[in-house]
Amino acid sequence: MNLLNKLYQIFLSEYAKRRIEKTILYVALFGFFIHLILIYLSKLGIVNLSLESELFKNPISAIYTPFSFILVYEVYLLIYYLPKSFTTYITKQYEIITLIIIRKLFKDLSALELSSDWFQIKGDLQFTYDILASVILFYLIYQFQKQGMQKSTQQKENKLKIERFIRRKKIIAVALVPIFFMMALVTLLNWTSDVSIASNDLPSFETINNLFFDEFFTVLILVDVVLLLISFFYTDKFHKIIRNSGFVVSTILIRMSFGVSGLISTILIVVAVLFGLAIIIIHNKYEKNTLPNNTSIEKP
After folding, report:
1. Given Cys at both, which of 107, 211, 272, 285 links 253, Cβ 3.0 to 4.6 Å?
2. Beta bridge partners of 201
């Protein structure tokens, strides 16, 4: 327990959160200016980069870089909130996938073809889908957070059971920090090894956009399943089991969106968040309509 508390303080304390937040902010600003400089050096012919890459055609696409670091911070926040609030942990999953879409919009903005054939151009059409999806997801996440803040009308669970469950979630959270750090490092090294500036060859944008996060959501599915199984030790209430199971399905749908592209990917993401919202709404209604165990009255 002492070791767990020490590791938790190092990785997931409020102080650690503030320190990581400040570090990510500085790195994001630095990355933004470096990306801008590379774009203009490439335009002036001073540096010969891959001009075929969509990330080096327009200064607007430089916003893609700081958003990538913001996403890294969101991943940390997801782990940070895991022991504190399960609904906030799920909300962070939805926020991450929404930010991935927003990040993609900045790249798409730099490549828009403004013409009367808007709905005939594949890139412009995908931009339309993504911008509508981002607004819909923003509203769905708002509703999800609103539902997640509703207090339970049930009697409080056994305090000892709750503390044990939180302790196990802390163990998972502490273990996730080095795992995701190693995943990010390995992903970065693998990607940079595929980049050959000399041959003007960069991986496709779809590869870059899905970089790290397809594996990230695969691990999240496993974490969600572990949390679901652990929850069986602390509650046998049907609506809570269904809620936790529904969140696993939602995460799987998000992961599936990385395996496809275009409109299908966008639809899968919206459906995943919509499904999660429907699950928590029904769960909350179920709790409101269920009387405490010791005061249930059976009508004749």
Report:
1. 272
2. 196
Residues 83-124 have pLDDT tens digits of 888 889 999 999 999 999 998 887 777 666 666 666 666 767
Question: How many Å is the maximal CA-CA distance in the chain?
Answer: 87
CA dist 210 → 38, 69, 268 (Å): 22, 14, 15
Half-sphere exposure of 298 (CA within 13 A, CB side): 3
Q: Which of 221, 206, 209 is nearest to 255 (CA)?
A: 221
SS3 string of 78-139? Answer: HHHHCCCCHHHHHHHHHHHHHHHHHHHHHHHHCCCCCCCCHHHCHHHHHHHHHHHHHHHHHH
pTM of the complete model: 0.82
SS3 for 244? helix
**Of 144, 139, 55, which is closest to residue 103 (Cα–Cα)?**
55
Q: Model confidence over 15-34: pLDDT tens digits? A: 999 999 999 999 999 989 99
